[in-house]
Amino acid sequence: MRKNWPGFVLLFFAAACAPLDAIPTQYPFPVTQIPFFTTDTPAPPSPTGTPIILLPTETPTPGLPPLITDTPSPLPPVKWWEVYFTDPLTINDPNNPAGSIEEKLISFIDNAQTSIHIASFEFNLPRVAQALVEAHNRGVDVRWVTDDENGLDLDDQPNRGQFAVLTGAGIEVRDDAGRSALMHNKFWIFDKQIVWTGSTNITVNGIYKQNNNVLVIRSTEIAFIFEREWEEMWAAQLGPRAPSTVGNQWAILDGTPIQVLFSAEDHAVSNLIALVNDAQTSIRFLAFSFTDYPLAQAMIDRAAAGVDVQGVFEKFGSNGIRSELKTFWCAQVPVRQDGNVSFLHDKIIIVDNSIVVTGSLNYSSNADESNEENVVIMDNAEIAALYLLEFEKLWNQARDPDPAEFLCQ
Question: Residue 3's pLDDT is what?
Fold first, then answer.
């Protein structure tokens, strides 16, 4: 576990001066300006780690000796995090959701008690729509923010119509107010306690054909951060002029520092560059779209300094002139193009076998400066190990670029 974050500290001391808007309430825990764990930073109170389990007791009858009973076994603690990956090679039949991310999402929907607030780019899964209607019918507050072009505007296309199912049942759906930029988030908030995020669109392709990941965080602190962002979008506070509270967007859960960033107001890519600049031993990345030269150059500079850097690009987009695949290749940094017959859609960076970056943000100027996006950064070796296994799997399925495609000068 890292104890010092010099790049982040400087950035967040500056960012913490941003005004705290009134949506939705004041922060429910003390705020400091340092986002990651350091020896002089107190952890927020009431971390959502191992829950306190209250066991039933029996009152003995007066005048009789106390009852002697076996000590009940406590229930196993619930982890505050879960990680899922799509598996297009084996779980690829949308008619059979067993073991899929769709099945897991429906389970969260079915267990929601009070609210399901969604910010998700596109949608075409009838089973998920039906689960949301059933949640709404039992009194759960279900509301969805989506993109216009890739959300509501596509709802009359073949194999779509799921937003109409929701609105027909009385569930309100709003888009991003006709902006040309994208509402590209993929996050769900359940009961203001659980956040579901990552790269996975709630579509047949996103779950059954593409390589994607989901991160689930059980934490009222993290849920509050996402809920506040969701409320901004619901109120049409969108784009770079939306209020930033980046200095408050962090928590420490069971010793794991977690930082949340939102585009465009939080300048997410600059924060990722600071993180990369601090890498000591290794950087791994999986990228659907990687066109940001400063981030690429930061990784290449760390490779030149002896850091082990490897990455997998999505094969179709990386053949374009704006892709940074050529930049890495000509710098002799090991990179490959994915081997998925559909495509790789992840947006993941893993630093020093401990720090994981995931979310909806592609590594591009549009994503950083215009879109509605989210990024989660956490320092947890156990979580990183799972992402590294996924990286190695996809690296082994990928192929080296064709050298004839590049003219390095």
Answer: 42
Catalytic residue among 153, 191, 301, 308: 191
pLDDT tens for each residue of 277-334: 999 999 999 999 999 999 999 999 999 999 999 999 999 999 999 999 999 999 999 9
State yes or no: is 186 an active-site residue. Answer: yes
In this chain, the answer to whether the domains covering 78-238 and 248-401 adopt an identical fold is: yes
- Catalytic site residue from 117, 186, 209, 326: 186
- In this predicted model, what pLDDT tens digit does every residue of 117-133 receive, in sequence order? 999 999 999 999 999 99
* CATH number among 3.40.50.2000, 3.30.70.920, 3.40.50.1370, 3.30.870.10, domain 78-238: 3.30.870.10
Q: Output the pTM of the full model.
A: 0.84
Residue 3 bears catalytic tag? no
Helix axes 268-277, 293-304, angle to 10 degrees: 0
Break the chain into its structural domains and give their ranges.
78-238, 248-401
Candidate list 136, 155, 176, 184, residue with the active-site label: 184
Homologous superfamily, domain 248-401: Endonuclease Chain A (3.30.870.10)
